[in-house]
């Protein structure tokens, strides 16, 4: 192919040219953003994968894959894990992937992270259910759900986040291309966010319904308490976490018919500052006991009254993105929230909150969950390891009768 | 609807709340980007619309509309123009649109521009062909074209550009919603770009094939010479320009099979720096006469040899964006270039170049034009005017027999 093309290109002539390796011609690696001076590289190696506790980047693409039937084996999965680990270790650091065909697209990673997870169906397909974390389950059905199969499930997920869409596009291409003979893309979801306060990139964002989103979130030692698995159920999973993906469509046409006051009562916060209706600043604690004339100031069926943790154990990490896709014919918007929640155990953390929301949230009339998926986000790796290695090595030992 | 919802929300209770106007609660307008100190607002009023000579923003969405049959009248078009002018005049300046239902999404415009144009079919549909600029024509068919109707045509176009996707999403929603009873969305195309050198945002970008793109471009007085209409054919069009939209799919799977040297011979530039094969820096003039061993260093059928202007008159403004959309089932990429060219007269400027490319560009094997459209970008407006007013007032005068 290349030779044919070259001949076609040269027409009557012929040309001798050196064959410099791709890596040799790549320019200097950009390790900091000249505009802000901030480091533009996130670490790859460590006890946890990036893209969870990482300060949220502005762009996210989630890719779900299914293994092709002939590759639904431990060997097939290991091949993919080795490829993705090698790709992610380089691309996140601003280095081209091995045999990268567009190496220049790798040089400005803009805090790229690559986060790999396994769906419950993967453990079934590979007959590894004994190694499946007990916390990795499909979510129960909620009465508000209108789930479309095209936005759910998947053997594998890769979450790619960066502060620019270019490195995300490049990484999507590299990771997909390198495993295309072994896996097919099941779905792709893309989102964007910008922090409300530029100086607080980890703070809340504004969703496309106009609400301040992500005010209540985890920090510091709460990650160990609420996010990272401790390996109590499955040794290999220590340092991992469970990702819940919910695609929540905003019913913008009816939402926009509401008056501003009504919207604020539905949410329980003001639209301007995001302050609870009982407060003045976004960070003010809502006072659910406040009444005026015998009527609660924050309606008990408002979104914050129900979405907030009622028990300490119901806390989890929210890392949402907006989505805004081309609408179907005859409609003018297809937008909403790509709600990404990370926690040790969704059954104890996410599900009770979602059940409360499903049962009574005033906001339900204007939002519709259309996609849902759960994944076990793998623990991080040390240099020389590959993602999932602890699991796959354990499987090998078990298969060989060497359980010690 | 609002009352029903409010009652539902409050359940047994009732609540009295003030009805503050939406605009009153919006926070301070952000007029500069805190990260860079650069102004984040582009002017709206002036002899030309923004989004043409404007330093290219990072995100673009192009929306094509068709007037609904019952609104294919001068009065229908005037209504839309008045609405869009009012919306654009506010949104570009960081102010919510009138009756904006998500006013907070308007406060960080990130250099938002709104650029409105008319397609040839609009002049037909409204029987205004006598007022149609002679330079506004459908492009001739090129042998390389594989045009899909879903990416072509349109009575009206709106190009929305900003340095963040959030204000673009909001503006798309506002402009579409406000005219939905009069016009339907025909197509939506979205793109992104980032400058190769952060310190030179008007400079070239890198496309998803890995090439440096946009090296040769116009500046300064060349805009008057090559871009802005002078009203010689149609008085009302002075200050406007013609936009050519070409959706050019990259055939990434076969492109990636080429060796790096072959790719560089196809393009005529190095992939690393974008320098011509006869030079060292991107800005070096290519030397098409240079030979080594009797063979031209830059192949005569390379992309730069053909895409470059051969006559002075063939120059035009390139303002391209990358696109990267979810691929069809079974494929792994649907990416390419949203090629946007602005010029006074495509027949004299763009078409000869495109004809040369179509006839012999080595790159044709790896790129496929799948969409094509032409629009007359309206002249800019002064405060108090609306977009298209000079045309529509002239039509009124002609209809009333007052041609003076």
Question: In a nutshell, what does this entry contain?
Answer:
By secondary structure, chain A is of the alpha+beta class. Chain A has ten helices and 13 strands.
User: What is the percent of helical residues of chain A?
Assistant: 10-25%
**Computed CA radius of gyration of chain A, to the nearest angstrom:** 23 Å
Largest interface, Cβ cutoff 8 Å: A-B, 88 and 88 residues
Mean pLDDT score of chain A: 90
Give the assembly state of these chains. Answer: homodimer
Distance between the termini of chain A: 51 Å
Number of strands of chain A: 13
Strand content of chain A: 15-25%
Uncertain segments of chain A of ≥5 residues (pLDDT<50)?
1-31
For the largest beta-sheet of chain A, the strand count, sense and barrel status come to: 9 strands, antiparallel
Spell out the key features of this protein.
homodimer, 404 residues, alpha+beta, 9-stranded antiparallel sheet, two-stranded antiparallel sheet, 10 helices, 13 strands, 23% helix, globular
Please, could you describe this protein's structure?
The longest helix of chain A is centred in the first third of the chain and has 18 residues, at 74-91. In chain A, strands 1, 2, 3, 4, 7, 10, 11, 12 and 13 form a 9-stranded antiparallel beta sheet that branches. Chain A has a two-stranded antiparallel ribbon with strand order 5-6. The relative contact order of chain A is 0.17. Mean pLDDT of chain A is 90; it is low at 1-31. Chain A has helices spanning 2-10, 74-91, 120-125, 165-179, 222-226, 252-255, 260-267, 303-307, 350-360, 389-399, and strands spanning 59-67, 113-118, 156-162, 183-192, 205-206, 212-213, 241-250, 291-292, 295-296, 317-318, 321-325, 334-343, 367-377. In chain A, 23% of the residues lie in helices and 19% in strands. At the A-B interface, helix 1, helix 4, strand 4, helix 6 and helix 7 of A face helix 1, helix 4, strand 4, helix 6 and helix 7 of B.
């Amino acid at each position: 192919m290349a030779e044919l093309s070259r001949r076609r290109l040269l027409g009557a002539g012929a040309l001798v040219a050196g064959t410099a390796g791709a890596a040799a011609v790549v320019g200097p690696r950009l390790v900091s953003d000249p505009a802000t001076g901030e480091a533009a590289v996130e670490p790859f190696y460590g006890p946890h994968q990036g893209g969870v506790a990482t300060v949220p980047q502005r762009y996210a693409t989630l890719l779900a894959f299914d293994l092709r039937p002939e590759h639904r084996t431990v060997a097939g999965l290991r091949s993919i894990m080795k490829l993705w680990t090698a790709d992610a270790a380089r691309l996140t650091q601003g280095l081209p992937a091995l045999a990268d065909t567009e190496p220049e697209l790798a040089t400005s990673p803009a805090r790229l992270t690559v986060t790999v997870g396994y769906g419950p169906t993967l453990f079934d397909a590979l007959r590894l259910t004994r190694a499946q974390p007990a916390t990795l389950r499909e979510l129960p059905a909620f009465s508000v759900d209108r789930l479309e199969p095209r936005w759910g499930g998947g053997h594998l997920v890769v979450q790619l986040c960066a502060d620019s869409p270019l490195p995300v596009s490049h990484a999507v291409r590299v990771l997909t291309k390198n495993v295309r003979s072994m896996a097919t893309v099941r779905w792709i979801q893309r989102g964007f966010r910008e922090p409300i306060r530029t100086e607080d990139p980890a703070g809340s964002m504004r969703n496309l319904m106009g609400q301040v989103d992500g005010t209540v979130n985890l920090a510091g030692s709460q990650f160990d308490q609420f996010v990272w698995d401790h390996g109590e159920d499955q040794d290999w999973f220590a340092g991992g976490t469970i990702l819940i993906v919910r695609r929540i469509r905003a019913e913008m046409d009816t939402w926009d018919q509401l008056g501003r006051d009504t919207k604020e009562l539905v949410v329980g916060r003001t639209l301007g500052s995001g302050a609870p209706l009982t407060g003045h600043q976004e960070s003010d604690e809502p006072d659910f006991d406040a009444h005026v004339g015998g009527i609660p100031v924050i309606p008990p069926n408002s979104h914050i009254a129900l979405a907030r943790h009622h028990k300490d154990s119901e806390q989890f990490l929210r890392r949402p993105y907006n989505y805004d896709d081309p609408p179907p014919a005859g409609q003018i918007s297809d937008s909403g929230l790509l709600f990404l929640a990370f926690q040790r155990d969704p059954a104890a953390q996410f599900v009770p909150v979602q059940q409360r929301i499903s049962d009574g949230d005033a906001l339900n009339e204007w939002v519709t969950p259309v996609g849902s998926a759960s994944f076990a986000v793998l623990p991080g790796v040390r240099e020389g390891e590959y993602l999932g290695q602890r699991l796959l090595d354990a499987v090998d030992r078990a298969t060989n009768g060497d359980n010690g």
